[in-house]
Every structure is written in structure tokens, then in C-alpha cells.
Amino acid sequence: MNVLGLGDNVVDKYVNLKIMYPGGNALNFAVFAKKLGQDSSFMGVFGSDAEGKHVLSALEDLGIEYSHSRFESGENGCARVEIKEGDRIFLGSNEGGVTREHPIQLTQADRSYLEQFALIHMGLYSHVNHLLEELIDLPGKVSYDFSDDFSEEEILRAIDKVNFGFFSVSHLSEDETKAFLKKYFTPSNEVLIATRGDKAAIGYDGQHYYEVNPVLREPVDTMAAGDSFLTAFLIHYLSGEDIASAMKKGNEFAGESCMVEGSFGYGVSYE
After folding, report:
1. Residue 122 pLDDT > 70, yes or no?
2. What are phi and psi of 202, to 5 degrees?
3. Per-residue b/e over 132-157, b at no fewer than 16 CB within 10 Å?
4. DSSP, res 131
């Protein structure tokens, strides 16, 4: 299956360790899909600094195609993070760097390129929300990560343009989560899923709810746990598994990813 992560790439700088790791929702999707055996690509904007070069180096080592990415002078996306007992605490960022400053505008060559993908994944921080209207016309499906600090305006802007939506709502009860998913489900959606930290993830397909408990382990690093969950769910679901089974595979893969430092490793020291 050909899949693509569209949008953000960053380095996560762990300030207490002075180590930076490649990451970002769209890039993590591409990496995790590759680890799950898919033909995976990434399309985004890279900065000219050491951070951008490090992310590119990781993609090349992993064999992830990025031929339609852009390269701009300036800072690559960068976030500052502190890890306490395996949990990540975000301290701030440059809000995407060149990804935000030079948003992708699709050329005809880009549109032809995107037609090859069975699935394109993007998210709230991908800085490509302006492309949603164009992605609707492509033959492949679109998934979207609304993360945990979405607004209702942001949901309504995107929800009817995507096939799959993911939300992080650890503050909601089971009943509140089900009501939330039902409220925002549209005819364009196949499945909406809400993850809830260490509580059961809940999926909704417009008729039925599905609940799967997370795999609880003592984490090394919870960075990208949600990204690994949604990637594994999507790959297994689109490969023919039912929703509950695909959610279970998502939880298992997320549990494995929490045993790796950073989103997927590749840490290097920085000054």
C-alpha cells in the first residue's frame, strides 16, 4: 500500500538530555507506516539548518521517499521537550519554522504525484490545512489527527473533508467521548477514534462504538504514542481488518513505540 505523510517534520529537543530526535505527526506517520511494511513517503518543508539535515538523514536511512518535499533557507521545525518519568512535557516551539513560513502550494506535478497514494495523513499542526479542499478530489483516502487542543472551529473546518479522524480526549468520560464522536461524525467519515491516555480508546463508524484498552507498560518515552496508534490502526484497517481488531493492533504498536527513545530513535547531541 502506498501511503504518504503530508506536512510537519520537526526535531524534538530534549533539553534535560541535550539530545534531539526527529519527529512531527506527518513524518512519524510515514516512518511508522514504513516500519509496518508499507511503501511510505513524506512531503513537507525542510529547513537549511542542522536540524533539517538530521531529519533528512533519518529519512534516507529508513528508505522513505520525499521527492516532492520543499527546501527553504531558515529554521526547520523544532520543539523543546522535557522528559519526566517517561512522560513528555512540551516547553515551546518555533511553530513549525519554515513549514509554517513557506506553506506548500500544490503544483500540477504534485497533484499527479499525490494520486498514487491510497492514504494521505495530515494533522492539526501540519500547516497544510489549506490543501484539504484539493485533497478531496484525489482517489485516495485522507486521515487527520486533531490532537488534543483542537477547537470546535478547527473540527468543523476539516471533519467533512476526511475519511478518518483522530482525537486525544483524556479529559472526557466514556459517555462524554461517545457523545463527542457522534456529534462530529459526518457522512464523509468512515471511522472517528478518540484516544484517552491510559483509558480505553473509543471508535465510532456512524452506527457502532468500539472500545479497546491500551497496552500498559512502564514507558521509556511516550513521544509519538498517538501517532504510532493511528498509523497501525489505519494500515491494518485498510488492509482488511475490522475496526476493533485494527484498534487492538494500534494499541499494541503504540505500546512498542513507547519503549523507544524519541518518536522513533535517531537521537543526536546538540549544543
Report:
1. yes
2. -125, 130
3. beebeeeebbbbbbbeeebeeeebee
4. G
Q: What percent of the chain has pLDDT over 70?
A: 98
Please choose, from the candidates 67, 69, 64, 9, the residue with its C-alpha nearest in 3D space to the C-alpha of residue 38: 64
Residue type (1 letter), 13:
K
Kindly list the distances between the CA atom of residue 28 and the CA atoms of 35, 179, 265, in Å, as whole numbers in the listed order.
Answer: 10, 29, 11
* All three cell numbers of 246: 485494527
Provide the whole-model pTM: 0.95
Tell me the C-alpha distance between 97 and 46, whole Å: 9
Please tell me which residue, 78 or 216, carries the higher pLDDT value: 78
Burial of 27-52, coded b for 16+ CB within 10 Å and e otherwise, reads bbbbbbbbbbebbbbbbbbbbebebb
Question: What single DSSP character describes residue 150?
Answer: -
150 vs 215 pLDDT, higher one: 150
Rounded to an integer, what is the distance from CA 84 to the centroid of its chain? 23
Contact predicate 166/144, CB 8 Å: yes
Strands 141-145 and 119-123: what pairing?
A: parallel
pLDDT, tens digit, for every residue of 240-269?
999 999 999 999 999 888 888 888 999 999
Angle separating helix axes 50-62 and 25-35, nearest 10 degrees: 20
Per-residue pLDDT, 84: 76
Q: Which residue has the higher pLDDT, 89 or 32?
A: 32
- In the chain, count H helices and then E strands: 9, 14
CA dihedral 181, 183, 186, 190 (to 10 degrees): 20
Q: Which three cell numbers stand for residue 39?
A: 511503501
The whole-number average pLDDT for the span 21-35 is: 97
Distance CA(267)–CA(45), nearest Å, equals 20
CA 140/CA 166 separation, integer angstroms: 18
What are the grid coordinates assigned to 165, written together? 479522524
